[in-house]
FAD dependent oxidoreductase domain-containing protein (Promicromonospora umidemergens), 372 residues
Amino acid sequence: MPHATIIGAGIAGTATAIGLTRTGWHVTLHERTDHPETSGAALGIWPTALAALDELGVGDALRAVATPQAAGSIRRPDGAVLAALSAERATRRPGDHVHLVARRDLATLLAAALPPDAVRYGSRIAPAGPGLGGLDDHLDGGADVVVVADGVFSAHRTALLGRRYQARYTGQSGLRGRVAVTTHEVTETWGPGRRFGITPYLDGTTNWYASLDAPPGERAAGGDVAMLRELFAGWHDPIGQVLDVLTEDDVMRHDLYDVHPHLPTYIVSGGSGNAVLVGDAAHGMTPDLGRGACEALVDAATLARCLAPPAASGSGNALGSPSGSVAAGLARYDRLRRRPTQLLQTLARGVGRTAHARHLTGMRDLLLRVAR
Ligand SMILES: Cc1cc2nc3c(=O)[nH]c(=O)nc-3n(C[C@H](O)[C@H](O)[C@H](O)COP(=O)(O)OP(=O)(O)OC[C@H]3O[C@@H](n4cnc5c(N)ncnc54)[C@H](O)[C@@H]3O)c2cc1C
């Protein structure tokens, strides 16, 4: 049975482990933290990612805990609609909407689909040196492929491809959370240097997010809630209702990074073996399109398909010689995934800049209509 070592048990690593296991691989997942992910806000899951979850055998488990999103709009602070977003246009087939799911619920359902004891928690894998040699312990230990899924600040990406490919600060800081306010419409509201988003959620609650221009690491001296109330004072309903009930405990804050420049490859093969990058380690993107986790799921399903043994073969290890067949499957994965994910990285950053525009907002509104 071919063996994969996976570094990082976030969404990308866990989903990849599920996909590879389903196609006959033995997997070992190393996760530096000592427990599964239990925090985080909601994630939008687009139809393409839902299709990937179906392929991984957990699509219905996701549908059971997620909230389908209705149509929405992009607005100005006074509430005027800049663009209407159609739920139907994002739909793969009837009923297949963008779904909003708690990150914790997604992590739980993915973890439940793993073979028992697949994850070694508290196992931080540091690169032992530059290039593939830095993974020798795992490749020598018998892994046919090492899957690098250690997130946007990936130390293994740097070791494999060089310091040139780093996480880059976008100039924007993101805040988000969930409050007990009932809302009915998805809205994202764009003002100068900041924006506010509302997504109706389960049981009369609302998932909200905001972003603002800020230097990395900057935190509001008087607390995030007071800062948010000041920055978004007078913005259209129901932003005020959300801010009214907000407490400091409701707010999660992250500075927003993407990977820049785009990677020249998502795979590294050599005499000592093969490594492949998935998820944010490969294509960390800003959350502006809500696609980072979605693309990690599509990576996982695609990689599993590329590394699956030919259906016609009846042999136990149908991949034959790992160095030959695995390398060919990885090359296919790179061809299928690099270009579309890098396009999304560029688009996401562009949307983030456009949303925060301080000048030429008339031109922006025109562009919005065209983009729609
Ligand atoms: C504000 C915000 C909102 C977002 N909203 C959405 C959304 O609506 N929809 C969407 O699709 N995406 C969204 N995203 C993006 C999404 O969160 C990420 O794309 C996704 O979490 C990436 O998953 P990952 O597994 O690649 O990386 P991570 O989640 O970062 O996981 C990496 C894992 O690797 C582990 N690790 C790191 N180094 C090592 C090591 N050396 N050894 C062992 N383990 C290691 C880490 O502990 C971690 O568990 C959002 C992101 C942000 C910041």
